[in-house]
Amino acid sequence: EGKARGFARDALRQAAAAAAREAVARDEDGESWSEHVLRSLETMDEEKVNIDAMAALVSHLDTTRPEGAILVFMPGTREISALVAALGGEGGEGGGK
Q1: Helix (H) and strand (E) counts for the chain?
Q2: Radius of gyration of the chain (CA)
Q3: What is the pLDDT of residues 56-89, one digit of tens each?
Q4: Percent of the chain scoring above 70 in pLDDT
Q5: N or C: which end of the chain has fewer CB within 10 A?
């Protein structure tokens, strides 16, 4: 009986995850999201800031967009310092390219 409950619980968890993937897989225009985005959303820890992902995003914006400022909101000074360090800068105005 215990194995059956565990199996049913796992099956329910998998079905819920599949339904959640389907719900998030499409944006308001009906376009689907790539599989790596869905995997990232499933494994994301909402209690932690992914400094590497933030640094990659800022770097991507810096290289693909016209020159200008990028404003990033972080929850605290520790995360701000970590992001500045990950970007290899001193921070502050004019600290970028």
Answers
A1: 4, 0
A2: 19
A3: 999 999 999 999 999 999 999 999 999 999 999 7
A4: 71
A5: N
In the DSSP assignment, the letter for residue 87 is H
User: What are the CA-CA distances from residue 35 to residues 14, 32, 84 (Å)?
Assistant: 16, 9, 30
Distance of CA 85 to the CA centre of its chain: 19
Is pTM beyond 0.85? Reply is no
The answer to whether residue 93 scores a pLDDT higher than 80 is no
3-state secondary structure 35-69: HHHHHHHHHCCCCCCCHHHHHHHHHHHHHHCCCCC
Q: Are 70 and 58 in contact (CB under 8 A)?
A: yes
